[in-house]
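User: Could you write out the 3D structure of this protein bound to zinc ion? I've included everything you need below.
Assistant: Certainly. Input first, then the structure.
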Amino acid sequence: MTERFDHKRIEAFWQEAWEKDRAFSSSPSNDREKYYVLEMFPYPSGKIHMGHVRNYSIGDVVARFLMMKGKNVLHPMGWDSFGLPAENAAIQNNIHPSKWTYENIANMKRQLKGLGLCYDWDREVATCAPEYYKWNQWIFLRLYEKGLAYKKLSLVNWCPGCSTVLANEQVIEGACWRCSSEVDAKELNQWFFKITEYAEELLQCTYKMPGWPERVLTMQRNWIGKSIGAEIEFKVKGAPESIRVFTTRPDTIYGVTFLSIAPSHPVVDKIASREKISEIKAFSDKLKNKTKRDIDLLEKQGIFIGASCVNPLTGEDVPVYASNFVLMEYGTGAVMAVPGHDQRDFEFAKAYNLPIKVVINPSDSALNPETLDKAYVDNGVMSPLTPFAGMSNIEAIDEILKILEQKGLGKKTINYKLRDWGISRQRYWGCPIPIVYCEKCGVVPVDLKDLPVILPEDVSFTGKGLSPLANAGAFVNTICPKCGSEAKRETDTMDTFVDSSWYFLRYCSPKELTLPFDKADASYWMPVDQYVGGIEHAVLHLLYSRFFTKAMRDLGLIGFDEPFKNLLTQGMVCKETLKCPEHGFLFPEEVKAGKCVKCNKAVSSGPVEKMSKSKKNIVDPDRIISEYGADTTRLFSLFAAPPEKDLDWNEEGVEGCYRFLGRVWRLVLDNIEFIRDVQKYDPQKDGSLRVPTPLYPTDPTKHDPHKDDSFQRKAEIMDIHTLTHRTIEKVTHDIEERFHFNTAISAIMEQVNALYLFIGSMPVEKLETNGLAKKVLRESIESLILILSPFAPHISEELWKRVGSLTPLYMTRWPDASELALLKEEFTLIVQVNGKLRSKVIVPVGATEADVRPIVLNDAKTKEWINGKSIRKFVYVPEKLVNIVAG
Ligand code: ANZ
Ligand code: ZN
């Protein structure tokens, strides 16, 4: 009886061994090429979920594989541990955020260790630790010094649910990204990072990042939102003021029939008629909390402000409207409206009965503004209503700009949708902003030597109102670093995205005491060679990290431009849902025999959805790991789908992976007697199995392979040998080039099946005496364990030891596929008769002249051409051609 596959014991044993050996610790070294593989660090919510399991299993395969390939691998892990949930837990359960966070970290660390992930735990960082956030503050002060951190009064997105300010990116369709409450506007003095200073570079570099998914690059480009256009001045009729508009289409200026301005535009107070002002104010207030993105969705509305402007090129009067779709924060807050060629203006003109002019036509027809049912937004030819009739509108842009420039009423400009990054948060559990306010000196930065500004522990907070720190007297009241008089500390904390914008640099020198990181360490390890994480970070975290990298480069801290060379965004982990017509989504245990246990109504299986609490389709990794083991859990999450695709979780698939590992276990242990003390077959030393002995019948007419036992046996051995090397080649390629772990795993499964068939067909006595079979079996099983190990490291280490290896797997080299073993089995031999190509036959690789002669002479076509003549010469050029001289 084979020993039982006791995954619990094996996994615990190897996890302890790895930890004791500090198996995955890393340090810079010049004799091996470095490789930095990083998975996005988690927020310590308390428990890992399947998304984490998948993310970290992907990174772990890459790390283990490259270690075996001889790379010097850095594979760290840490905690993004400041943030809202800790504070909410504090409010709800009366537990201090710090205690809650560190308890969660301990539990999640236990879970990650239980998955056998190969992290260098010596490099662990937690962003809520003063040793870490001290450097947030240090970086903040350096940016402040450079003018890249500044303070301004600004309207912020205020979430009434979380009682905090949200970044634009955290507002999704007017609602909070976290709690979905509708977001209001509030005016506050806020700290900003000047990310806009880097807008152009951030954009340009996206065209030089081949290791990133195109989808993510496109999202970043759209977020940066560069527009090339012009600013044009429209003089107000009968007043000294003028309104500047931003347009990307100066070619449409002859079609302007009104102006649209943001209701909050300062010109309103100066030029609007008295009786309209309060109406416009009210309209403006209603729009305060809207972002550009939701404004696009609104029905177009506006108010005539009671004033007009003059078109600088036509001299026509154009009425001015305060409109709900013009945003004060973009461009100049004013738009020249061209209903003939802009769809928003078209809708507005229809609603308010304003004239529509066509000034650009398609090249083959003329549009009639009376019958137009939507704006013509494409390129075309300038219409006879303009002085450029017949010219392409693209060319007209330059001509028009020339005239405007001469008149001093227009100039080319570039606009970006990207806004500066507001980092102030009215929250407790975050990094204090190291600034002091002094009545005499104003805004004073804390001295670098006085960092960190420690987040005080004893703060009472209710989750309501402004910053909780404002009530912590001992924290707030301080001394001005400049003049020594009484002063007050800044009570806002930093957005937690600041913490995660440079953690990958801290991993390079996590214990560094004098700087955020050591420059030499960073230049050795950085950039991250492979970053793995969720697509939800396509703009926020990934753009901020890119900005930080560039800003730190300009502070002289590092010497490179981009932090992440290659990016893999993994798909979501999904599962089928269960739905009761009365009670909605149900947990699996709320369903008995297809019926809801509450109302006995038939339950339908709903759509496959991302695992979530609300859909009640979450699978707890702890349960899967304890039932099936870490290796199975990892294997399934890698096998069920390619990494970028969504993964459909199903328990049968998990069981299938568990059974597969059991098969591997028995395969090795059941045959261990035959292979333990055997040298593996080594094509480099032992030569190709094909040459020089031909494995195929020398004379097919006399030989029946199905009866000839030794012949067949050798062919089978050869097949296993070839398959072994083919599998190595495929698995290597699938990991290295494509991250297609699923197809790599199926190839390994096929090899296991083939080995079972091979052994099953070989009587035990034969296996014992057949030296070649034993060598090849040894070779195949050895490589099987090696190539399985990045996916299922525990069982692999155990089997590796059992087959008699003395060094642990993680110190063993990845096998190479042998060219000799991969040689084709057959080739096409060209047959010439009297110098002319007459036929082709298929013959085995390694065939000698004696082997091919009967095959060629029996070939029907060749026979036809020889036509009974006598054969005077038979010339064989091995593996190429045969020439027969007949006559
Ligand atoms: C006249 C025009 C004619 C326009 C036409 C477009 C088409 P992007 O590409 O997004 O930069 N615009 C300018 N400032 C705006 C603001 N603060 N709020 C809302 N819309 C604004 O868009 C630039 C175009 O959006 C500008 O070009 C302007 O309308 C409008 F056939 O000017 B256009
Ligand atoms: Zn002072």
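The longest strand covers residues 149-159.
User: Perfect, thank you.
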